[in-house]
Design the sequence.
């Protein structure tokens, strides 16, 4: 089977903005470069050294307005854009820039939820998986869910890294344990991705407007969409590269 890489996307700060890329160099055992490099810990977080699960972080499942953020990563600086906020450029690793970020994100953070408090990093991407992963999603699966719901769904609801075309809807679930070569990189498909309420928010407006979880459950008996993969052979990937199951 041959598929095609139709989109590459990263999220420099977990749940705080998306950025499209034309190409990227993957490394074995690592996340997509720059993806979830930082995360925003809330005031109730109980962090340990290194990777931490998502319930410690400010995220779209609890603060849907975050889903409307776009981002650009340039070196160690990030620019955030939101339809209801002025653009902000800052250095997530610089403590002196933290107050500006907290002021920027406060108006789009629900007051009845634990408030964002600090930005953390772990030396690896803060993905939702406990291993450094790259998420792989299918445009055909997105089309199938959109048809089921009677409305076109934006791919940005699902915050994926690599979007593939040329594969049957939800066929990616059959790839668990198999290897996928894209460009010169090889990724091993590890597990399905179970989705959260963040997918219910419109990524243009930040408003909850679609019952993605209910429709996944009703149509397919689960709330999974996309798969997590591990890079087992590094290499460059670019838009329109062919993907081959090995």
Sequence:
């Amino acid at each position: 089977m041959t598929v095609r890489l139709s989109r590459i996307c990263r999220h420099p700060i977990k749940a705080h903005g998306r950025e499209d890329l034309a190409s990227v160099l993957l490394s074995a055992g690592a996340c997509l470069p720059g993806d979830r490099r930082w995360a925003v810990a809330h005031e109730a977080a109980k962090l340990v050294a290194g990777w931490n699960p998502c319930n410690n972080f400010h995220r779209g499942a609890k603060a849907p307005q975050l889903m409307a953020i776009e981002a650009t990563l340039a070196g160690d600086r990030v620019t955030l854009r939101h339809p209801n906020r002025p653009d902000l450029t800052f250095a997530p690793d610089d403590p002196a820039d933290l107050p500006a970020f907290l002021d920027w994100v406060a108006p789009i953070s629900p007051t009845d939820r634990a408030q964002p408090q600090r930005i953390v990093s772990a030396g690896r991407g803060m993905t939702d998986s406990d291993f450094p992963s790259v998420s792989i999603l299918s445009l055909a699966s997105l089309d199938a869910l959109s048809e089921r719901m009677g409305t076109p769904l934006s791919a940005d609801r699902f915050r994926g890294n690599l979007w593939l075309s040329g594969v049957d809807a939800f066929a990616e679930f059959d790839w668990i344990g198999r290897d996928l070569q894209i460009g010169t990189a090889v990724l091993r498909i590890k597990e399905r991705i179970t989705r959260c309420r963040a997918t219910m928010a419109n990524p243009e407006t930040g408003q909850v407007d679609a019952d993605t979880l209910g429709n996944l459950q009703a149509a397919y008996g689960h709330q999974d969409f996309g798969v997590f993969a591990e890079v087992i052979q590094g290499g460059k990937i670019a838009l329109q590269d062919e993907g081959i199951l090995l």
Summary: The chain has two domains: 2-32+128-245, 39-120. The longest strand covers residues 185-194. The two ends are 9 Å apart (CA to CA). The longest helix spans residues 139-149.
